[in-house]
Amino acid sequence: MLSEKVIRDPVHGYIHLNNLEANIINTKIFLRLQHIKQSPTAYLTYPSHYVNRFVHSLGVMELSGKIAFYVLENSPTTVVNKFLNKCKNDFAIDRENIKEVFIQTAKLAGLLHDLGHPPFSHQGESALSKDDILKLYNDDSDFPSFVTAKGGKLPKFHEFSTHCLIRDNEELHQLLTTGFNYKSLLLKIFVTVHPLV
Question: What is the DSSP letter of 52?
Answer without folding.
Answer: B
